[in-house]
C-alpha cells in the first residue's frame, strides 16, 4: 500500500501518447521510457547539478571532439525473445531519430550526428559532423538516447506507438489503464543494478490540487504540487513527507517584439524593460521560491550570466525613454496563455508597466491558439505581437536554450524578432567549442545581446516543487520529471 | 409508432450531420496544431505538416466531412494523432466511466430531488417548504469543484473512507462503486436542487388542475394525491429536462472528473480540443451527439409511456 | 340604442399593475428576492463608490490575507482587495448575464416566432438548427468564437448568447405553435393582417411573458456558465474582476485560502437565490392560468 | 335574386399523416372528412341558422368558407364570383366578417379594446383622424360605455366581449356575417341582449348572417332558415318555422325533442335518443345517424341516403323522411307519444 | 347512512389582491334525504361557491362564515382529517367540467378503485366488480374495457356518466352535481338528465343539482333555490318557482328564457342592467338596481326572507305572505 513496500506510486500530470522515443511528446512519457528502455548514460538528481554517469554502457568516452566510443553492458536483452541488445541497435536508434525523413521532433538532438559505426556486438563509435559538446547531457541520457530494437521496429514497419515491439530496461511495461494508471514491473532479465522498487505505478492526475489531496489520502508516494500550495505544505507538511524545492529548466521571459510597429524604436522597448518589476512577479506568482534569471540559462549554474543589464525597474527612466522616443499614450497588448500562473504573471506585468505609463491589455489564448499567434506560416500576425509572456522547457547546456533565438527562428519561436548576426555566429561557436570558459563567455555575451536588443525581459526559471514520502529519496532530471528507476529507499 | 421512430432517427441523423459540419467549420476557424501544443518549440515544420496530413486537415473541408462520414459508416472514427489508437477505442474506454458517473449522479439526484419537490408541495407555504426552497436553489449555485474538494478533504484525507482518485480497479465492482461515491455526489448536489425545484414548480401547476380537486373530493389522502395523481403528470417536464441535463452532465463532468482524476469523456474531449487532436475531437463529438440524440428520443418515448395522450399521437 | 351594459368594475390597467406589484411584494420569498436582486444591481451600478479599494490594485506583499478589518473579504492571490473585486465582479457578472440573456432572449424570441408562425419547411429547418446547436460541445464552440473575435467580455456574451438562444427559441416556438391557431390570431387573419403585424403585434406580447420569467431564472445559470468558462481560461480578460474568475483564482489556493472560494461563491449563491425566486414570483403572478380573476 | 353566398359540395378533411409518414408508409391513413359534401346558399339579408351537436363541423365549415381552412373539395361562390385563390378569399373577407365562438379568446389579449375595435380600419388602410374617437363611436354603437376603450379583453365579461366582437365584425360594414355560437356561455338575459343587438344592426346595415349554434331555443327566434348538421353533413335545411313544426329528418326531430322545457309540469320521461355520438374518425356506414335513429331500418345501415329536395325550399338526407310515407308517420307519432310525457 | 343537510348564515368571501369578493352572503338552505335540490342562477352568482363550501373543498383564499350541519354535525368544526374522511364517503361532488375531472394519465378503473379507498373491507377485485356494475348502471356498455381506458378516450357524455358513477360508488348521503350537463350537447344532456332521474328512484340520499339552465332544473328537481349575486333570493317547490315565482328576479329570469316562446320573437326579452360587483355588494337588495318594482327601502335596507308557504320563501320587500 505504501512506499515502505515494494511498490512505488508516483503521480504524473498527463497520460502517455506514444512510447516511440522519436515521437514522444513530453517528460511524462520519458518517465516510463526511463524504466523500460535503456540509454548509454544517465543523469543524477538536478539538485546535485545533474551529473551524468554510465548506465547502459559500461564505457562511454569522448575520444576526440567528433568521436565517442561506447560499449554496452553485458547481458542486456530484448523482451519478446529478440535477443541481446547490440551496437547495431544503438546505431539504428540514433540514426533513425536523426534521419530527417522520419521528421522526429527530437532530430535536432542528433543534428550533429554523422553516423554510428558498429565495432562489434556490444561496442561502437559515434561520429559527429561537428564537435558537439552537449551531447552527453542533452541527447544521450534522454528520450532521443533511448535504445530501441532494430529487429522489432523493422518488423513493426518502422514505427510503433503505444506497443513497443521490444524493451530492455529495468522494468517491463505491464499494464496501462487509459488516462488513469500505468504499471511497470521489474524486468527479471535486467542485468544492471536492481531498482529498489519491484513495481512502479504511475497515476495520471492532471490537477495539482487534486493530486495533493490524493497524496494526503495516501494514494501515491510522489507528486509535484502547485507552487501556490508550497508555503502551506512547508509550514505544515503531511506526515512522513519531504518537500523538494528546486529550480526547473523551464525559463520564463517577456518577449518584446521589435517587429511590432509600436515597438520599432529600441528606446520604447527599453522603456518596457525598465517598466517591468520582476521582483513582484517572483513574490506574487512564485512565492519567492525562485530567483530572477539573468538570461535563459539557469541561475546558479556555471553558464549563468552574472547579472541582468537592467536589474531593477526604473519607472522614471522608462518614462524618460518614452519621452525621448517621442511616444506618449503607449498602449500594448500582452499575449499570454490562459492558465492561472501565466495570467497572474501577466497581470503583475500589466500593473507595473502601468506605473511606467504604458497601458497594457492582456490577451489570453488557449495553448494551441497561443502558439499560432507567432507562427509565420499562419500569416503576418507574428509581426503584430507587442508583448508575449513565454516560457520554454530548457536543457542543461546553454545551447539548448539559446537555439530558439537564432534569426532563423523569427516567426517560429523567436517572437522578439531578434535578428542578430553576432548571436548566430556566437551560437555556432558555442556548440563547437569544448573549452568551458570560452563557452561561458560566449553564452553570457549572447544573453547580453538579447537584452540589449530590447527584445527580452528575463524573469525566472520556474520552481519545481514536489513532495514525497521520506521512506525514499527520489531522483529528478533537469526536465523536472523523476526517474523512478533511480529512486532509493532510505535505510 | 414505426413512422415516428423512423422520423426521429432520421432527424437525429440530420442533427449528427449538421453538428459535424459545424465542428469542421470550427476546426477550420480555430488555430493551432497538435504538434505545437504537444512539443512547443520542438515541433518542427515537417512534423507539423506530417500531423496535419495524418489528420486529413490539408484536404478541402467538404471532402474531410464526406470522408469522415464514409469512415464512420464502417465504424472507423479515425485515429488519435499521436498514439494512432482508434478513436473508437479511446471513446469506449472513457465512455463507460462517464456514463456510469452521469447516470449514478442523475439517479441520486432524482431519488432525492423528486421526493424533496413532493415534500415541499405537500408542505407548501410552511417553513419546511421555505427551507427546501432556499437549500435547493442555493445548492444549484455551489460550484461542483467546491463540493468535490471538500468532500475529498473530509472523506478521503481525514476519514479515509473513500478512495481519493481514479475510477476503481478494473473488474472490481466494489472498488469502482466506492470510487463513484464522491464524484457522483458532487455532480448530483446541484441537480438535486434543480430537480426539486422543477418538480415543485410543475407539481404546483398540476395541483391546481380540476382532476386534483376531484381526487380531493373523494377524500384521497394528500400524500397519495401528490405521489400518484400529481407526480405522474408533474414528472413529465422534469424528464425532458433531465434528458437534456444528462447530455450536459456527460460533457460538463470535466471539473469533477478532473478533481477525482476519473478518465472520462469530458476529459477526453477537452484534452483533445486543447491539444488540437482533431480525430479524437470529431469521433468523440459524433458519439456524444449520437448519445444525446438517443437520450432525447428515449425521453420522448418515456414521456409517451407515462402520458397516454401523447402515446396516442405516436400510434396515429 | 339598447340597454347599455353598465361599467362593472373600476379596474384600470394601471391599477392592475400596481396591484400586481403589491401582490408580488406580499410574498415573503419574492420580497427577499427583490431585495437581493436590487442589492446586486445597486452594487453593480455603484461599484466605484462602494468598493473600498481599486479592484486591480496589486499588492504582492499582502497576498492571500485572510479577512480583516482592513480587507473584509481578505485579499486575493495578487494581494487585491477581494471585497472590491467581488463588488466590481457583480458588475461584470450581471452585465454579462443580463446582456447575453437579453440577446439570447431576443434572438430566441425572433427565431421562435418565425419558426412557429412561418411555413412548415422553415420551421423544420430552424428546429433542426436549434437541436444541432444544442448538441454542439460548448468548449469547441467557445474556442471557435473566441479565436475569431478574441477573448473578452463581448466575446463571452456572444458565446453565451449563441449557446443559449436555441432553448429560448424552442420555448417560444412551442408557444407560438399553440397560439397560432388561437381564435384571436384567426380573427386577425380574417382582418387581413400581415404576417409581420400578427407576429409583432399579436403574438409577441403574448409569448414574451413566460420568456422573461425564464430569462430571469437563467441569469444565475449564465453567471455560472461564465464561471465555468473562466475555468477553461475562456472567461473575461484579466484583470477584469468577475465572480467566475474570482472562483477560478480561488480554486488554485483553495487549501491555503479557502475564504477566496467562499467569498467568491457566496454572491453567486445569493444571486441565484434572488433571481430564481424573483422569476418564480413573477411566474406565479403573471402566469395566465393564475391571472387574477376579474371580480364580478 | 341570386344568392350572396353559395357553397357547393364543400368537403374539409384534416390529414392525419405527416409528409414524412406518407413517404415512408405505403398505406397512409386516409384523411377523414370533418365537413362532407355541404351544399348551402345564403340570400342577401337572410339569416341562416346552422345547427348541430358539438364536433359536427359547424365551426370548421364557417372557417372554411372564409378561407381559414383549405377545402378538400367543393366550390364557394360569393356575390356571384368563384372564390378560389388567396386573393379571392382576401377580397371576400373584406366584405364579410366573423364572430368567434369564444368572445374573449378572439380578442388579442394584450391590446386594449380601443385598439382592437379600430384594427380593421387600420389594416385596411382607411383614413382615421382620431382613432380613439372612432373607437368610442363604435362602443356607443354596441351600447358599451366609452370608458371601455382602455380595457383589456380579460377585463370584459362574456357579454361585453361579445359586444366588442360585434362592433369589430361590423366596423367594415360587411355584406356577410358568420357568427359562430354568438351566445355560447352567456346567461339567457345577456344572450337576449347580444341577439337583439345583432338583429338591430342587421336591420340597419342589411347584411346576411349565418349563425352557427346548437341552441335550438334561441335560433328559432333569429333565423329565417335552418340547416341541421350531423357528423359533418347537412341532414336537413328549410325555413325555420317549418323545420320546427314539421321536421323531416329523425335527427332534427330528436334534437327538438331533447331540448329540456323549463316547466316542471311537462317533464319528458325518456330521452329522445340513446347511444353515443359517433366520431368523424369512424363515420358509421350508410346513414351516419343509423346508430342512434329511433326509426332505423336495415337499408339505413348500408346505403347512404342522398341529400334531396323535398319541395318548398326544404332538403333532407334520409331514406325515410318523416312526413312522406304513412307508415313512417305513424311510427314517429308512436315514438313521440312514448317520449313526450303527460 | 344519510341525514339532513342545513346551511345557515353561510357566507364565503375570496381574498384577492383586488379586495374581498363576497361570493356568498348569509345563505340558508336545507335538504332532506330523498330530495333533489336545484340551485339556479346566472353565471358568477355563487352557485359553485355554495356547493363547494358544502363539500368543504373551497380554495385556500376562501374565508367561510356560518354553519353547515350535516346529519347534526357541524362540518366546519371538524378537523381536516375528519373532513377528509367525510369526503368521498358521505359527500360526493360531480364537477362542472367532465373533460378535466379525471386524471389524464391514469386509467378510469385505477382512479375509480382509488376513490373507494374508504371501503377498507373490499379487495381490489371486489372494488373493480363494483365499478363494472356501476358503470353498467349509468349506461356504459363494455365496462371492463372502459375501466382500462384513459379519460381522453371517452366522449364527454361518457366521462360525465363515469363521474356520476364514481360519486355513486361511494354510497354518499349527499350527492352534489355542479352543472352536470352544461358541457354536453342537447341529446347527451337529455340522456344524463334521464340517468339522474332513474338513479333517484332507488337512492335515498340528498341530490343537489346546480345549473343555470332553467330547463334542466325543471326536469330534475323537487325544490329549487334561485341565487342572485351571492344570495339566495327565492326558494321553494319546483312547481311554485316555475309557476308562481314571487321574487322579481326569478320572474325576470324565467321571462328571459327563449325556450318558453314557441312563436318567433323579434326582440328577445332581457333584464336591463348588469350584475352588481361582488367586491362591494349593494347595501340594500342586491337586485334593486335592476328591479322594475323597486321602491324606497330597496336601495338601503336589505330585504328579509319572507316565508310564503311552508317551503316557499323570497327575499324581497315587495312580497308578503
Ligand atoms: N385542426 C384540426 N385538426 C384535426 N381535427 C380537427 C381540427 N379542427 C377540428 N377538428 C375536428 O373536426 C371535427 C369538427 O370540429 P368543429 O370545431 O368544426 O365542430 P363544431 O361543430 O364547431 O363543434 P362545437 O360545437 O364543439 O364547436 C371535430 O371532431 C374536431 O375534433
Ligand atoms: N378562488 C376564487 N378567488 C376569487 N374569486 C373567486 C374564486 N372562485 C370564484 N370566485 C368569484 O366568486 C364569484 C362566484 O363564483 P362561482 O364560481 O361560485 O359562480 P357560479 O355561480 O358557479 O358561476 P358559473 O355559472 O359561471 O359556474 C364569481 O364572481 C367568481 O369570480
Ligand atoms: Mg364550434
Ligand atoms: Mg359554477
TrEMBL record, chain B:
<dbReference type="InterPro" id="IPR045621">
    <property type="entry name" value="BPD_transp_1_N"/>
</dbReference>
<feature type="transmembrane region" description="Helical">
    <location>
        <begin position="280"/>
        <end position="303"/>
    </location>
</feature>
<feature type="transmembrane region" description="Helical">
    <location>
        <begin position="9"/>
        <end position="30"/>
    </location>
</feature>
<feature type="transmembrane region" description="Helical">
    <location>
        <begin position="131"/>
        <end position="157"/>
    </location>
</feature>
<dbReference type="Pfam" id="PF00528">
    <property type="entry name" value="BPD_transp_1"/>
</dbReference>
<dbReference type="InterPro" id="IPR035906">
    <property type="entry name" value="MetI-like_sf"/>
</dbReference>
<dbReference type="GO" id="GO:0005886">
    <property type="term" value="C:plasma membrane"/>
</dbReference>
<protein>
    <submittedName>
        <fullName>Binding-protein-dependent transport systems inner membrane component</fullName>
    </submittedName>
</protein>
<keyword id="KW-1133">Transmembrane helix</keyword>
<keyword id="KW-1003">Cell membrane</keyword>
<dbReference type="GO" id="GO:0071916">
    <property type="term" value="F:dipeptide transmembrane transporter activity"/>
</dbReference>
<keyword id="KW-0472">Membrane</keyword>
From TrEMBL, chain C:
<dbReference type="InterPro" id="IPR000515">
    <property type="entry name" value="MetI-like"/>
</dbReference>
<keyword id="KW-1133">Transmembrane helix</keyword>
<dbReference type="GO" id="GO:0055085">
    <property type="term" value="P:transmembrane transport"/>
</dbReference>
<dbReference type="GO" id="GO:0005886">
    <property type="term" value="C:plasma membrane"/>
</dbReference>
<feature type="transmembrane region" description="Helical">
    <location>
        <begin position="138"/>
        <end position="165"/>
    </location>
</feature>
<feature type="domain" description="ABC transmembrane type-1">
    <location>
        <begin position="90"/>
        <end position="279"/>
    </location>
</feature>
<dbReference type="InterPro" id="IPR050366">
    <property type="entry name" value="BP-dependent_transpt_permease"/>
</dbReference>
<dbReference type="InterPro" id="IPR025966">
    <property type="entry name" value="OppC_N"/>
</dbReference>
<keyword id="KW-1003">Cell membrane</keyword>
<keyword id="KW-0472">Membrane</keyword>
<protein>
    <submittedName>
        <fullName>Putative peptide transporter permease subunit: membrane component of ABC superfamily</fullName>
    </submittedName>
</protein>
<feature type="transmembrane region" description="Helical">
    <location>
        <begin position="93"/>
        <end position="118"/>
    </location>
</feature>
Automatic annotation (TrEMBL), chain D:
<dbReference type="GO" id="GO:0016887">
    <property type="term" value="F:ATP hydrolysis activity"/>
</dbReference>
<feature type="domain" description="ABC transporter">
    <location>
        <begin position="5"/>
        <end position="256"/>
    </location>
</feature>
<protein>
    <submittedName>
        <fullName>Oligopeptide transporter subunit ATP-binding component of ABC superfamily</fullName>
    </submittedName>
</protein>
<dbReference type="InterPro" id="IPR003593">
    <property type="entry name" value="AAA+_ATPase"/>
</dbReference>
<dbReference type="Pfam" id="PF08352">
    <property type="entry name" value="oligo_HPY"/>
</dbReference>
<dbReference type="GO" id="GO:0005886">
    <property type="term" value="C:plasma membrane"/>
</dbReference>
<comment type="similarity">
    <text>Belongs to the ABC transporter superfamily.</text>
</comment>
<dbReference type="GO" id="GO:0015833">
    <property type="term" value="P:peptide transport"/>
</dbReference>
<dbReference type="InterPro" id="IPR013563">
    <property type="entry name" value="Oligopep_ABC_C"/>
</dbReference>
<keyword id="KW-0067">ATP-binding</keyword>
<dbReference type="Pfam" id="PF00005">
    <property type="entry name" value="ABC_tran"/>
</dbReference>
<dbReference type="InterPro" id="IPR050319">
    <property type="entry name" value="ABC_transp_ATP-bind"/>
</dbReference>
TrEMBL record, chain E:
<dbReference type="Pfam" id="PF08352">
    <property type="entry name" value="oligo_HPY"/>
</dbReference>
<dbReference type="InterPro" id="IPR013563">
    <property type="entry name" value="Oligopep_ABC_C"/>
</dbReference>
<keyword id="KW-0067">ATP-binding</keyword>
<feature type="domain" description="ABC transporter">
    <location>
        <begin position="5"/>
        <end position="254"/>
    </location>
</feature>
<dbReference type="GO" id="GO:0005886">
    <property type="term" value="C:plasma membrane"/>
</dbReference>
<dbReference type="InterPro" id="IPR003439">
    <property type="entry name" value="ABC_transporter-like_ATP-bd"/>
</dbReference>
<keyword id="KW-0547">Nucleotide-binding</keyword>
<dbReference type="InterPro" id="IPR027417">
    <property type="entry name" value="P-loop_NTPase"/>
</dbReference>
<dbReference type="GO" id="GO:0055085">
    <property type="term" value="P:transmembrane transport"/>
</dbReference>
<dbReference type="GO" id="GO:0015833">
    <property type="term" value="P:peptide transport"/>
</dbReference>
<dbReference type="GO" id="GO:0005524">
    <property type="term" value="F:ATP binding"/>
</dbReference>
<dbReference type="Pfam" id="PF00005">
    <property type="entry name" value="ABC_tran"/>
</dbReference>
Amino acid at each position: 500500500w505504501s512506499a515502505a513496500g515494494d511498490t512505488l506510486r508516483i503521480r504524473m500530470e498527463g497520460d502517455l501518447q506514444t512510447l516511440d522515443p522519436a515521437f514522444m511528446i513530453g517528460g511524462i512519457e520519458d518517465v516510463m521510457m526511463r524504466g523500460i528502455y535503456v540509454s548509454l548514460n544517465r543523469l543524477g538528481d538536478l539538485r546535485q547539478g545533474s551529473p551524468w554517469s554510465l548506465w547502459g554502457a559500461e564505457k562511454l568516452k569522448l575520444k576526440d571532439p567528433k568521436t565517442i566510443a561506447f560499449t554496452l553492458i553485458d547481458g542486456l536483452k530484448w523482451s519478446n525473445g529478440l535477443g541481446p541488445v547490440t551496437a547495431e541497435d544503438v546505431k539504428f536508434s540514433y540514426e533513425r531519430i536523426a534521419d530527417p525523413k522520419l521528421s522526429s521532433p527530437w532530430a535536432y538532438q542528433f543534428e550533429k550526428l554523422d553516423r554510428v559505426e558498429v565495432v562489434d556486438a556490444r561496442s561502437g563509435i559515434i561520429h559527429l559532423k561537428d564537435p558537439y559538446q552537449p551531447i552527453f547531457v542533452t541527447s544521450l541520457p534522454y528520450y532521443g538516447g533511448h535504445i530501441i530494437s532494430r529487429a522489432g521496429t523493422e518488423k513493426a514497419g518502422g514505427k510503433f506507438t503505444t506497443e513497443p515491439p521490444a524493451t530492455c530496461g529495468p522494468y517491463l511495461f505491464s499494464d496501462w489503464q487509459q488516462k488513469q494508471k500505468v504499471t511497470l514491473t521489474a524486468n527479471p532479465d535486467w542485468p544492471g543494478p536492481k531498482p529498489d522498487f519491484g513495481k512502479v505505478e504511475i497515476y495520471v492526475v492532471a490537477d495539482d490540487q487534486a493530486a495533493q489531496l490524493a497524496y494526503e489520502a495516501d494514494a501515491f508516494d510522489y507528486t509535484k504540487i502547485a507552487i501556490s500550495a508550497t508555503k502551506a505544505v512547508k509550514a505544515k507538511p503531511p506526515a512522513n513527507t519531504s518537500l523538494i524545492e528546486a529550480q526547473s529548466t523551464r525559463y520564463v521571459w517577456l518577449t518584446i517584439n521589435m517587429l511590432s510597429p509600436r515597438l520599432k524604436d529600441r528606446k520604447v522597448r527599453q522603456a518596457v524593460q525598465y517598466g517591468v518589476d520582476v521582483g513582484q512577479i517572483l513574490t506574487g506568482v512564485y512565492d519567492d521560491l525562485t530567483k530572477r534569471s539573468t538570461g535563459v540559462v539557469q541561475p546558479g549554474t556555471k553558464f549563468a550570466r552574472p547579472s541582468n543589464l537592467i536589474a531593477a525597474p526604473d519607472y522614471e527612466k522608462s518614462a524618460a525613454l518614452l519621452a525621448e522616443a517621442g511616444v506618449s499614450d503607449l498602449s500594448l497588448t500582452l499575449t499570454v496563455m490562459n492558465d492561472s500562473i501565466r495570467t497572474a504573471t501577466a497581470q503583475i506585468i500589466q500593473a507595473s508597466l502601468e506605473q511606467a505609463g504604458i497601458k497594457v491589455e492582456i490577451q489570453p489564448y488557449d495553448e494551441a491558439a497561443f502558439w499560432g499567434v507567432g507562427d509565420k506560416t499562419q500569416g503576418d500576425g507574428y509581426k503584430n505581437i507587442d508583448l508575449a509572456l513565454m516560457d520554454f522547457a530548457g536543457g542543461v547546456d546553454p545551447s539548448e536554450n539559446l537555439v530558439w533565438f537564432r534569426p532563423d527562428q523569427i516567426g517560429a519561436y523567436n517572437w522578439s524578432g531578434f535578428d542578430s548576426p553576432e548571436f548566430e555566429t556566437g551560437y555556432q561557436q558555442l556548440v563547437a567549442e569544448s573549452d568551458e570558459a570560452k563557452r561561458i563567455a560566449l553564452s553570457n555575451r549572447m544573453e547580453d545581446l538579447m537584452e540589449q536588443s530590447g527584445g527580452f525581459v528575463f524573469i525566472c526559471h520556474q520552481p519545481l516543487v514536489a513532495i514525497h514520502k521520506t521512506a525514499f529519496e527520489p531522483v529528478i532530471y533537469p526536465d523536472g520529471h523523476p526517474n523512478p528507476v533511480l529512486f532509493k529507499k532510505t535505510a | 409508432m414505426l413512422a415516428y421512430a423512423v422520423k426521429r432517427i432520421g432527424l437525429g441523423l440530420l442533427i449528427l450531420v449538421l453538428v459535424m459540419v459545424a465542428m469542421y467549420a470550427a476546426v477550420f476557424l480555430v488555430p493551432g496544431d497538435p504538434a505545437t501544443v504537444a512539443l512547443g518549440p520542438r515541433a518542427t515544420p515537417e512534423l507539423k505538416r506530417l500531423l496535419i496530413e495524418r489528420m486529413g486537415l490539408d484536404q478541402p473541408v467538404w471532402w474531410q466531412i464526406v470522408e469522415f462520414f464514409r469512415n464512420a459508416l464502417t465504424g472507423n472514427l479515425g485515429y488519435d494523432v499521436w498514439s494512432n489508437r482508434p478513436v473508437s477505442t479511446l471513446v469506449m474506454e472513457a465512455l463507460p466511466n462517464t456514463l456510469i458517473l452521469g447516470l449514478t449522479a442523475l439517479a441520486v439526484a432524482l431519488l432525492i430531488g423528486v421526493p424533496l419537490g413532493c415534500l415541499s408541495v405537500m408542505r407548501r407555504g410552511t417553513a419546511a417548504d421555505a427551507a427546501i426552497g432556499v437549500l435547493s436553489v442555493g445548492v444549484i449555485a455551489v460550484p461542483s469543484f467546491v463540493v468535490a474538494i471538500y468532500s475529498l478533504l473530509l472523506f478521503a484525507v481525514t476519514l479515509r473512507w473513500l478512495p481519493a482518485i481514479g475510477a476503481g480497479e478494473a473488474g472490481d465492482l466494489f472498488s469502482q462503486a466506492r470510487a463513484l461515491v464522491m464524484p457522483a455526489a458532487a455532480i448530483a448536489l446541484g441537480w438535486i436542487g434543480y430537480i426539486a425545484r422543477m418538480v415543485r414548480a410543475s407539481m404546483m401547476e398540476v395541483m391546481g388542475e380540476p382532476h386534483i380537486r376531484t381526487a380531493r373530493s373523494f377524500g384521497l389522502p394528500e400524500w397519495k394525491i401528490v405521489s400518484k395523481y400529481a407526480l405522474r403528470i408533474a414528472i413529465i417536464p422534469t424528464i425532458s429536462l433531465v434528458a437534456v441535463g444528462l447530455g450536459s452532465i456527460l460533457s460538463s463532468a470535466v471539473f469533477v472528473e478532473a478533481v477525482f482524476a476519473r478518465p472520462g469523456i469530458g476529459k477526453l474531449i477537452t484534452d483533445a480540443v486543447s491539444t488540437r487532436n482533431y480525430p479524437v475531437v470529431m469521433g468523440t463529438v459524433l458519439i456524444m451527439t449520437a448519445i444525446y440524440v438517443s437520450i432525447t428520443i428515449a425521453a420522448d418515448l418515456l414521456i409517451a409511456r407515462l402520458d397516454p395522450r401523447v402515446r396516442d399521437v405516436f400510434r396515429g | 340604442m339598447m340597454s347599455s351594459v353598465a361599467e362593472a368594475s373600476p379596474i384600470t390597467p394601471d391599477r392592475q399593475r400596481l396591484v400586481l406589484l403589491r401582490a408580488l411584494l406580499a410574498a415573503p420569498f419574492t420580497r427577499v428576492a427583490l431585495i437581493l436582486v436590487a442589492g446586486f444591481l445597486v452594487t453593480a451600478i455603484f461599484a466605484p463608490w462602494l468598493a473600498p479599494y481599486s479592484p486591480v490594485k496589486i499588492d504582492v506583499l499582502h497576498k492571500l490575507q485572510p479577512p480583516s478589518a482592513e480587507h473584509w473579504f481578505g485579499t486575493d492571490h495578487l494581494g487585491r482587495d477581494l471585497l472590491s473585486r467581488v463588488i466590481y465582479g457583480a458588475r461584470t457578472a450581471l452585465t454579462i448575464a443580463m446582456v447575453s440573456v437579453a440577446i439570447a432572449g431576443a434572438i430566441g424570441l425572433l427565431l421562435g416566432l418565425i419558426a412557429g408562425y412561418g411555413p412548415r419547411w422553415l420551421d423544420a429547418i430552424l428546429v433542426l438548427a436549434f437541436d444541432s446547436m444544442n448538441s454542439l460541445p460548448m468548449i469547441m464552440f467557445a474556442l471557435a468564437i473566441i479565436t475569431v473575435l478574441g477573448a473578452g467580455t463581448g466575446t463571452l456574451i456572444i458565446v453565451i448568447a449563441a449557446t443559449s438562444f436555441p432553448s429560448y427559441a424552442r420555448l417560444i416556438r412551442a408557444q407560438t405553435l399553440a397560439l397560432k391557431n388561437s381564435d384571436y390570431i384567426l380573427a386577425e387573419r380574417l382582418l387581413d393582417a400581415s404576417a409581420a403585424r400578427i407576429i409583432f403585434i399579436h403574438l409577441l406580447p403574448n409569448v414574451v411573458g413566460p420568456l422573461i420569467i425564464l430569462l430571469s431564472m437563467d441569469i444565475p445559470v449564465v453567471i455560472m456558465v461564465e464561471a465555468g468558462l473562466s475555468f477553461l481560461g475562456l472567461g473575461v480578460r484579466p484583470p477584469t474582476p468577475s465572480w467566475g474568475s474570482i472562483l477560478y483564482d480561488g480554486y488554485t489556493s483553495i487549501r491555503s485560502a479557502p475564504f477566496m472560494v467562499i467569498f467568491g461563491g457566496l454572491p453567486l449563491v445569493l444571486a441565484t437565490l434572488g433571481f430564481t425566486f424573483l422569476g418564480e414570483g413573477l411566474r406565479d403572478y403573471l402566469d395566465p392560468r393564475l391571472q387574477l380573476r376579474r371580480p364580478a | 335574386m341570386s344568392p350572396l353566398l353559395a357553397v357547393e359540395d364543400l368537403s374539409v378533411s384534416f390529414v392525419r399523416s405527416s409528409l414524412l409518414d406518407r413517404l415512408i408508409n405505403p398505406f397512409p391513413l386516409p384523411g377523414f372528412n370533418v365537413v362532407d359534401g355541404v351544399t348551402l346558399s345564403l340570400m342577401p339579408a337572410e339569416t341562416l341558422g346552422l345547427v348541430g351537436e358539438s364536433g359536427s363541423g359547424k365551426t370548421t365549415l364557417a372557417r372554411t368558407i372564409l378561407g381559414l381552412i383549405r377545402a378538400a373539395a367543393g366550390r364557394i361562390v360569393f356575390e356571384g364570383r368563384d372564390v378560389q385563390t388567396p386573393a379571392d378569399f382576401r377580397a371576400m373577407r373584406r366584405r364579410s366578417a366573423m364572430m368567434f365562438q369564444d368572445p374573449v379568446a378572439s380578442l388579442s389579449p394584450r391590446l386594449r379594446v380601443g385598439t382592437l375595435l379600430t384594427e380593421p380600419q387600420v389594416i385596411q388602410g382607411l383614413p382615421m383622424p382620431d382613432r380613439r374617437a372612432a373607437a368610442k363611436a363604435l362602443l356607443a354603437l354596441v351600447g358599451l360605455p366609452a370608458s371601455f376603450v382602455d380595457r383589456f379583453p380579460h377585463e370584459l365579461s362574456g357579454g361585453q366581449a361579445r359586444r366588442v366582437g360585434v362592433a369589430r365584425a361590423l366596423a367594415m360594414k360587411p355584406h356577410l356575417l358568420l357568427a359562430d355560437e354568438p351566445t355560447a356561455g352567456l346567461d339567457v338575459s345577456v344572450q337576449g341582449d347580444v341577439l337583439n343587438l345583432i338583429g338591430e344592426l342587421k336591420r340597419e346595415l342589411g347584411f346576411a348572417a349565418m349563425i352557427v349554434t346548437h341552441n335550438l331555443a334561441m335560433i328559432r327566434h333569429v333565423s329565417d332558415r335552418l340547416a341541421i348538421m350531423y357528423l359533418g353533413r347537412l341532414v336537413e335545411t328549410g325555413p325555420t318555422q317549418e323545420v320546427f313544426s314539421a321536421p323531416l329528418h329523425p335527427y332534427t326531430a330528436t334534437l327538438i325533442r331533447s331540448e329540456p322545457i323549463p316547466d316542471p309540469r311537462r317533464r319528458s320521461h325518456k330521452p329522445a335518443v340513446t347511444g353515443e355520438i359517433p366520431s368523424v374518425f369512424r363515420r358509421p356506414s350508410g346513414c351516419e345517424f343509423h346508430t342512434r335513429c329511433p326509426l332505423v331500418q336495415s337499408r339505413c345501415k348500408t346505403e347512404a341516403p342522398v341529400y334531396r329536395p323535398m319541395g318548398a325550399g326544404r332538403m333532407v338526407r334520409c331514406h325515410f323522411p318523416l312526413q312522406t310515407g304513412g307508415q313512417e308517420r305513424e311510427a314517429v307519432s308512436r315514438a313521440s307519444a312514448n317520449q313526450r310525457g303527460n | 347512512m344519510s341525514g339532513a343537510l342545513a346551511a345557515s348564515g353561510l357566507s364565503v368571501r375570496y381574498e384577492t389582491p383586488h379586495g374581498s369578493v363576497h361570493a356568498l352572503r348569509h345563505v340558508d338552505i336545507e335538504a332532506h334525504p330523498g330530495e333533489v335540490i336545484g340551485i339556479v342562477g346566472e353565471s358568477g352568482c355563487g352557485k359553485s361557491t355554495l356547493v363547494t363550501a358544502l363539500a368543504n373543498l373551497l380554495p385556500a383564499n376562501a374565508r367561510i362564515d356560518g354553519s353547515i350541519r350535516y346529519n347534526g354535525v357541524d362540518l366546519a368544526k371538524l378537523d381536516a382529517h375528519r373532513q377528509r374522511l367525510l369526503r368521498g364517503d358521505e359527500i360526493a361532488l360531480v364537477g362542472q367540467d367532465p373533460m378535466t375531472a379525471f386524471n389524464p394519465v391514469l386509467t378510469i378503473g385505477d382512479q375509480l378503485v382509488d376513490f373507494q379507498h374508504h371501503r377498507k373491507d373490499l379487495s381490489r377485485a371486489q372494488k373493480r366488480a363494483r365499478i363494472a356494475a356501476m358503470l353498467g348502471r349509468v349506461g356504459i356498455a363494455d365496462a371492463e374495457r372502459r375501466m382500462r381506458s384513459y379519460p381522453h378516450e371517452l366522449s364527454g357524455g361518457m366521462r360525465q356518466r363515469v363521474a356520476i358513477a364514481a360519486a355513486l360508488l361511494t354510497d354518499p348521503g349527499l350527492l352534489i352535481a355542479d352543472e352536470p350537463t352544461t358541457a354536453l350537447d342537447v341529446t347527451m344532456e337529455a340522456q344524463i338528465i334521464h340517468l339522474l332521474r332513474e338513479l333517484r328512484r332507488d337512492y335515498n340520499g340528498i341530490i343537489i343539482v346546480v345549473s343555470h339552465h332553467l330547463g334542466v332544473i325543471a326536469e330534475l328537481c323537487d325544490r329549487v333555490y334561485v341565487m342572485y349575486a351571492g344570495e339566495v333570493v327565492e326558494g321553494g317547490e319546483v312547481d311554485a318557482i316555475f309557476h308562481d315565482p314571487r321574487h322579481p328576479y326569478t320572474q325576470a329570469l324565467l321571462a328571459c328564457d327563449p325556450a318558453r316562446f314557441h312563436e318567433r320573437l323579434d326582440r328577445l326579452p332581457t333584464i336591463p342592467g348588469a350584475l352588481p360587483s361582488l367586491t362591494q355588494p349593494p347595501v340594500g337588495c342586491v337586485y334593486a338596481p335592476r328591479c322594475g318594482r323597486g321602491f324606497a327601502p330597496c336601495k338601503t335596507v336589505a330585504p328579509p326572507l319572507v316565508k310564503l308557504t311552508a317551503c316557499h320563501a323570497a327575499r324581497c320587500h315587495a312580497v308578503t305572505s
